[in-house]
């Protein structure tokens, strides 16, 4: 059989592929993207606040001093959308990293908005708060598909960057990231738990890895030995997958202490269960 030359191959793309087409701007004129801020050290994110039910404009409630050289703004000049994923156990700094990236994007003149799940009511619904108290205003939603309507289609069109925190709680994460990055040209920065307390894949976070431009796995510090922590140990005997909580329920642990911790918790659980069986008043 004769080898098929590239030019004789039937293209499935119409019009046929041209390298130039890769660089053609999609929808937005170049002027839409502002130049980097002239005051790189401290500034406030440019948030979109158009929801009439929310005070507008809401004051930025935090600002992280930023030295530009320390902040990675992943390839934000592309005219196509992007997806960046930040994962790791609890207390690894996922929310902190997300907030820094959002701040850096904002410093570059891009319009940003941040979404978190409304399941997490620990610090109220109007802001994202890190474990050490950094804050950023946000949209607390049940599903990502409601975002465009909530914010309003015009405001959505103006947005450059969308941050998503607690991504494990959004069932429609994959579809949203596809739509926002592939069709709407947004940069989507996603932070969430890759694994639950049993180290099972959590929600749809791992499903979006194939969509990602970059994936960052962060580590925390093992609460028991100080080594790097890759996992989250649940300290209580609740067994549901979703259980909102902080340091009172969870701790970051290394592999050794995860394994040891599971043995201890498993033993405690069986003692409790056998006590329940022996006790006439418990069912
Ligand atoms: N075991 C811990 N308990 C409470 N806070 C912690 C613990 N370990 C680290 N932290 C704090 O939490 C910060 C990270 O918070 P955050 O960005 O909200 O993490 P994540 O979103 O990954 O849970 C760390 O910089 C540190 O100050
Ligand atoms: C491990 C694990 C965690 N959760 C909950 C607990 C917290 O409310 C969030 C994680 O918050 P963080 O910003 O990453 O610290 O998720 C859960 O529901 N189930 C789990 O197994
Ligand atoms: Zn350890």
From TrEMBL:
Which Gene Ontology terms describe the biological processes this protein takes part in? DNA biosynthetic process; response to stress; thymidine metabolic process
What Gene Ontology molecular function terms does this protein carry? ATP binding; identical protein binding; metal ion binding; thymidine kinase activity
Q: What EC number(s) does this enzyme carry?
A: 2.7.1.21
Is this entry keyworded Acetylation? no
PANTHER family attached to this UniProt entry:
THYMIDINE KINASE, THYMIDINE KINASE, CYTOSOLIC
The protein's organism comes out as Gossypium arboreum
Q: In which pathway does it act?
A: Purine metabolism; Pyrimidine metabolism
Zinc listed as a keyword: yes
Q: What is this protein called?
A: Thymidine kinase
Q: Which reaction does it catalyse?
A: thymidine + ATP = dTMP + ADP + H(+)
**Keywords annotated in UniProt:** ATP-binding, DNA synthesis, Kinase, Metal-binding, Nucleotide-binding, Transferase, Zinc
Supply the SUPFAM superfamilies for this chain. Glucocorticoid receptor-like (DNA-binding domain), P-loop containing nucleoside triphosphate hydrolases
Q: Which family does it belong to?
A: Belongs to the thymidine kinase family.
Q: Which Pfam families match?
A: TK (PF00265)
Top EC class of this enzyme: transferase
């Amino acid at each position: 059989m004769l080898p098929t030359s590239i030019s004789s191959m039937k293209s499935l793309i119409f019009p046929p592929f041209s390298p130039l087409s890769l660089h053609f701007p999609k929808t937005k004129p170049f002027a839409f993207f502002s130049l980097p801020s002239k005051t790189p050290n401290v500034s406030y994110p440019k948030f979109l606040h158009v929801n009439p039910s929310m005070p507008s404009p809401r004051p930025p409630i935090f600002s992280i001093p930023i030295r530009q050289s320390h902040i990675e703004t992943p390839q934000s000049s592309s005219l196509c959308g992007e997806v960046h994923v930040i994962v790791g156990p609890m207390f690894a700094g996922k929310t902190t990293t997300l907030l820094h990236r959002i701040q850096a994007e904002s410093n570059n003149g891009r319009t940003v908005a941040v979404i978190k799940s409304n399941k997490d009511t620990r610090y109220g619904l109007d802001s994202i708060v890190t474990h050490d108290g950094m804050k950023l205003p946000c949209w607390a939603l049940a599903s990502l598909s409601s975002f465009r309507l909530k914010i309003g289609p015009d405001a959505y069109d103006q947005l450059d960057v969308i941050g998503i925190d607690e991504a494990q709680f959004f069932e429609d994460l994959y579809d949203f990231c596809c739509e926002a990055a592939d069709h709407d040209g947004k940069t989507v920065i996603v932070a969430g738990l890759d694994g639950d307390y049993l180290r099972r894949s959590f929600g749809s976070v791992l499903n979006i890895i194939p969509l990602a431009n970059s994936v960052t796995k962060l580590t925390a510090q093992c609460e028991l030995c100080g080594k790097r922590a890759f996992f989250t140990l649940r300290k209580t005997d609740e067994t549901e997958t979703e259980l909102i909580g902080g340091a009172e329920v969870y701790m970051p642990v290394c592999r050794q202490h995860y394994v040891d911790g599971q043995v201890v918790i498993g033993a405690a659980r069986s003692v409790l269960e056998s006590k329940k069986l022996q006790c006439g008043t418990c069912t």
